Amino acid sequence: MSRIELSLNPSPRAVAIADRVESFVRDVVVPYERDPRRDHHGAPLDELVYEMREHARAAGVLTPHILADGSHMTQRETALVLIKSGLSPLGPLACNTMAPDEGNMYLLGHKATEEQKDHFLKPLVEGRARSAFFMTEPSDDNGAGSDPSMMLTTCRQDGNHWVINGRKTFITGADGASVGIVMAKAEDGGACMFLVDLPDPAIRIDDVPNTIDSSMPGSHATVTIDNLRVPASQMLGEPGDGFKYAQVRLSPARLSHCMRWLGCCIRAHEIASDYACRRMAFGKALIEHEGVGFMLAENLIDIKQAELMIDWCAGVLDTGSLGTTESSMAKVAVSEALMRIADRCVQVMGGTGVTDKTIVEQVFREVRAFRIYDGPTEVHKWSLAKKVRRDWREAQA
Question: Short name of one Pfam family for this protein (predicted)?
Answer without folding.
Answer: Acyl-CoA_dh_N
